[in-house]
Amino acid sequence: MSVTIKSAREIDLMRESGRILAIVHDELGKAIRPGISTKDIDELGEKLIKSYGCIPNFLNYNGYPASICVSVNNEVVHGIPRSDHILQEGDIVSLDAGLIYKGYHSDAARTYAVGKISPEAENLIKVTKQSFFEGIKMAKAGYHLYDISNAIDDYVTSYGYGIVRALVGHGIGTKLHEDPQIPNFRQKRRGPRLQPGMTLAVEPMINMGTGDVEWLDDEWTVVTADGKYSAHYENTILITDSEPEILTLPR
Ligand code: MF3
Ligand code: CO
Question: Does the reported pTM lie above 0.85?
Answer without folding.
Answer: yes
